[in-house]
Write a structure and sequence with these properties.
With 163 residues, the protein is of the alpha/beta class. Helices cover 44% and strands 24% of the residues.
Length: 163
C-alpha cells in the first residue's frame, strides 16, 4: 500500500477545506493510505514515510504562510536526497494571486527532487481588505471539486505505479 501525505496550513479555513477535499478524492483509491496533517504536526519522519505529497498553503503577503514555511524548514534537510522522484501537487488559497506561493513550494520541491504531477491549483478568494483577509473563508463547490479531482488523480496514479 502506498501513502499520500497531505500537509496543510490554514488560519481562516480556506486551505483546510481544499486539503480535506483533496483527501476525500484520494481516499477513493483503496490502494493508497491518505494522511492529512497540519503543518505544525507534520514531521520529517512523515515526509520520509510517504510515497507522494500534496502541499496546501495559503498565500500571505505574497509568500507561503509562515507555519507552512516552518514545516519545510524543519523537514528539508532530513528528507534531502531521500525522497527523490516522488510525486507531488500543490494547492494554494490566495487572496488575489497565489502564484508566488506556488513558485516557492515548487522551488522547495525541486530541491527535494520531487516530481510535479499537476500544475499548482490556486483558488483565489478575492480577499483584499483587512476584514476580508482575516474573515473565515468558504471555498465554493466547483473549486472544492477541482481539489478533490486532484487528490483522486494523484492517488490513482500512485496506485497504478504511474507516479
Amino acid at each position: 500500500m502506498k501513502t499520500l501525505l497531505i500537509v496543510f496550513q490554514s488560519r481562516t479555513g480556506g486551505t483546510r477545506q481544499m486539503a480535506e477535499a483533496a483527501a476525500r478524492g484520494a481516499t477513493a483509491e483503496p490502494q493508497v493510505r491518505v494522511r492529512l496533517l497540519p503543518a505544525t504536526e507534520a514531521q520529517p519522519e512523515d515526509v520520509l514515510a510517504a510515497d507522494g505529497y500534496i502541499f496546501a498553503a495559503p498565500e500571505n503577503l505574497a509568500a507561503i504562510a509562515g507555519l507552512m514555511k516552518e514545516f519545510f524548514d524543519r523537514s528539508y534537510y532530513a528528507a534531502l536526497e531521500r525522497i527523490n522522484g516522488r510525486p507531488y501537487a500543490v494547492l494554494v488559497c490566495a487572496g488575489s494571486d497565489g502564484q508566488n506561493a506556488a513558485r516557492q513550494i515548487g522551488r522547495i520541491a525541486t530541491g527535494w527532487r520531487l516530481r510535479a504531477v499537476a500544475h499548482p491549483l490556486v483558488v483565489c478568494v478575492h480577499a483584499e481588505t483587512p476584514e476580508a483577509i482575516l474573515a473565515p473563508k468558504m471555498i465554493g463547490a466547483a473549486d472544492l471539486g477541482r481539489c478533490e479531482d486532484l487528490g483522486a488523480a494523484l492517488a490513482a496514479g500512485m496506485a497504478m505505479g504511474i507516479f
